[in-house]
Write a structure and sequence with these properties.
The chain is α+β, with helices and mostly antiparallel strands and about 180 residues long. It contains 3 helices and 11 strands; from the N terminus they run E-E-H-E-E-H-E-E-E-E-E-E-H-E. Helices cover about 15% and strands about 35% of the residues. The N and C termini lie far apart (about 30 Å).
Amino acid sequence: MPSRDGWKTRANGCSGCVVGRCVAGSQVIRTAAAVFLAISGGTSVSAGCSETAAEFRWDGGGVRFAVEIADDDAERARGLMFRESLPIGAGMLFVYEKPQKVAFWMKNTLIPLDMIFIGPDGRVNGVHANAVPGDLTGIPGPDDTLMVLEIKGGLAARLGLEEGAELRHPALNQTVALWPCS
């Protein structure tokens, strides 16, 4: 169930996990920011796979985001609508049942977002930077999109997260994942 700050709070009071630690909503922000700062300096990303973390690696860098999962029609339709802010180091990972053509819009979205389109093997196959809040123009992804990560607008470019980066996440088919969990 979403809390006041928009994070889904689990029965144990945990809002999310950052580098294997269960943390409450406000702690997620502080911890994710610290993780972001540590990783963006070029440090290798090496913690294990977690449903609540999206890890990326590329030549010269890597990053781990604390993520909310949107894996059904209702969650994907709502997305990050009505959010007034999005912490650095956090995002929403949209997961589809199979690779497909997708398109997003920014209806009722109050903050600029970067959209990271991910193929079935975990490779980033498209990035749309700084989607405009409230814009109803469709933002298409590549035909074979399995997942889309929405993060704070402008962050992908600052990190160097671009096409060709690899995602590690348990929702990927681990037999075809470029960066499997094990």
